[in-house]
From TrEMBL:
Residue ranges: DNA binding: 32-51
UniProt keyword annotations, A-Z: DNA-binding
Alphabetical list of Pfam families matching this protein: TetR_N
Residues annotated as domain HTH tetR-type: 9-69
UniProt cross-references to SUPFAM superfamilies, sorted A to Z: Homeodomain-like (SSF46689), Tetracyclin repressor-like, C-terminal domain (SSF48498)
Highest taxon, organism lineage: Bacteria
Keyword DNA-binding attributed: yes
Transmembrane residue ranges: none
Protein name from the UniProt record: TetR/AcrR family transcriptional regulator
Length: 200
């Protein structure tokens, strides 16, 4: 990486970190051009040079943290041997992300994030393909071995992540009636029954 590229990466990181800090403190309405440039110490021109617009900055921030969440899930999954252990690891990693990065988790689960990612559908799918492929490569041998029900991969993903995403959204919306530790203890076995080949 050239010195110019390195400086550009540092500038991008400063802007992204400032945007997340503002989002965490004040929500999306707090992420203004003025606030981002003041908090980051980066010029307005640099913001537009790197991201094109404030919306471009928020899109990049959403993609960054969605990617980090997916990376944590893959790391957790591929460090296990059995599919049942994999389910427990993925649930634990997802809920740990929500607990450890509340601002980023709120951003990733927001309606605005859904809109931004849908607007760049194919591009996002292409960027996430290595992560999705890693998950598929891990789960396919367990399907072939009769450990996991032979369901289409998108359906397996929905059965595993759907309940966890629902808990995360509920928790992040400010509803205090679900304890993340309880969810991490209870959900894996319930989810496992929905995807195991023998339903046990």
């Amino acid at each position: 990486m050239s010195p110019k590229q390195h400086r550009g990466e540092i500038t991008s990181d400063l802007l992204l970190d400032a945007a997340l800090r503002l989002y965490t403190e004040s929500g999306e309405q707090g992420v203004t051009v003025t606030a981002v440039t003041r908090t980051s110490g980066v010029s307005l021109g640099s913001l537009y040079h790197h991201f094109g617009s404030l919306e471009g900055l928020l899109t990049a921030l959403t993609e960054r943290w969605t990617g980090r969440l997916l990376e944590q899930l893959v790391t957790a999954l591929t460090s296990t041997e059995t599919a049942r252990e994999g389910v427990r690891a993925v649930v634990g990693a997802y809920l740990a992300f929500v607990r450890d990065h509340p601002g980023a988790a709120l951003l990733v689960h927001s309606p605005s994030a859904d809109r931004r990612l849908l607007a760049r559908g194919q591009e996002i799918r292409d960027a996430q393909q290595p992560t999705v492929s890693a998950m598929s490569r891990w789960i396919q041998p367990r399907i072939d071995a009769g450990e996991v029900a032979p369901l289409p991969m998108p359906l397996l993903e929905t059965l595993v992540l759907g309940p966890v995403v629902a808990v995360a959204r509920r928790r992040l919306s400010g509803v205090p009636d679900i304890d993340l530790n309880d969810a991490a203890r209870i959900l894996p076995d319930r989810i496992w029954r929905s995807i195991s080949a023998d339903g046990a």
